[in-house]
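Changelog entry: the Synaptotagmin-4 record was regenerated in this release. Current contents:
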Amino acid sequence: MGFVVGLVTGLIVGLAIIVLFVRNENSRSKLRNELATTVAAFARMTVEDSKKILPAEFYPSWVVFSQRQKLTWLNQHLTKIWPYVNEAASDLIKTSVEPVLEQYRPIVLSSLKFSRFTLGTVAPQFTGVSIIEDEADSVTMELEMQWDANSSIILDIKTYLGVSLPVQVKDIGFTGVFRLIFKPLVNEFPCFGAVSYSLRKKKQMDFTLKVIGGDISTIPGLSDAIESTIRDAIEDSITWPVRKIVPILPGDYSDLELKPVGILEVKLVQARDLTNKDIIGKSDPYAVLYVRPLPSKTKKSKTINNELNPIWNEHYEFIIEDATTQHLVVRIYDDEGVQASEFIGCAQVLLRDLEPGKVKDVWLNLVKDLEIQRDTKYRGQVHLELLYCPIGMENGFTNPFTSDVSMTSLEKVIKSGANGTDAIENEEAAINKKKEVIIRGVLSVTVISAEDLPVADLMGKADPYVVLTLKKSEAKNKTRVVNDSLNPVWNQTFDFVVEDGLHDMLILEVYDHDTFGKDYMGRCILTLTRVILEGEYKDTFQLEGAKSGKLNLHLKWMPQPIFRDS
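Regenerated structure tokens:
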């Protein structure tokens, strides 16, 4: 009996021990999982998250530092040394900016110089800093800066009539990004050879002009002309990609200087659905294009009168100094004759989004402001063809806009000197030659079919046909009519002799055939750049001006290049 009791008791105790052990292991496993989850949550925490959990006194000071607070020490030191910076920098800035002011001096003035220039007693405040890791042998620092200056700047202005005016530049307010580049990095103290500085971005720049002892408005247009000159001088002297280089260690730093890195070829094709700015009739749009907003580097298209869907088909060329940060800006205006032009909208293309050596065809929505895009109003679209060609590009790509591509072998020999070298001796001459490029050839267009055309007849069908037109030569062809079809198939080929392929365009218009006329259904507008570069391609194009519809086309180019002297 005692044996049985002992056995039962042992079994019960053993089972109890096993149950307790299992429960303990499960509890420990659960705690480990919860701990791992908590650690993972802490790992994902930001400084802002930690501030919500603990008051500032419970963690080290380096945790509470935000980007703005990290610069407190810099602003404090800058405030202390600012009187010395003012004295040293004022003469330096005056000396470097004065020649640029003279370069952009308005025609009505005979002289534009500084009679007084000091930066004032209020130091700029840096509100943020970021480090850009782009190259292995340099460090790039960008500082967000805000400056409400009390500078004392007086311009000595003289007109051709002998009138001398002292103009004060006051109430300067500036917000922007200041860039410092420490390059190259070396193994000698202070570990970099030179410092380059530049104004990376102007977010806001305001100032007022006042004639000392008079009113500047008494001379019409003078205030606007001087303000434009000051802004152009700042843009051309210190705004990125322009940079000033300060050598720290002896050496050659010519590679840090501003120099072209590529060419941007831009074809302004057309715009559509532009906002009408005229009460009577339609707007008279023209376009302004630039990479750097300087008068000498800005391009302006011709004005298309009374048209909200203008076709320009104009080609421009821009020199690029920094493909990673620069961008192309297009601004559309309504020409008001003798009055100031009315702004319609603008758009931009970042150069870093372009694939070198490849044509990019883009439609861009026009906006009111490129910086603050709160306005969602539809202002129309602009159509561009873009081609970025880096200098020294060696991948077999040939830029069709260069002069050599348009010359036959015989013409290259004729144009060369006795020693076989090209007679063009300088870059300026080469650029002038580019304007004379003529690419001649035969364009073969196969109109394959159309899809999902809009209904044009009462019976829910249409009798479509396509009219093909070369814009410059006005040569025309048309397909046969396909009755009662919204998805017609033509498979018809047409050949056009093209005299100037780079500056011509193909317009395909779809009509519905009626017994007593025709109804317009939509169109496609194609430049010839792509077919010249690729030789042959097949693609589908959306009909413009139609609710629906596509055209399936096959294009082929057979070149006959020539070179003509103007």
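DSSP finds nine helices and 25 strands in the chain.
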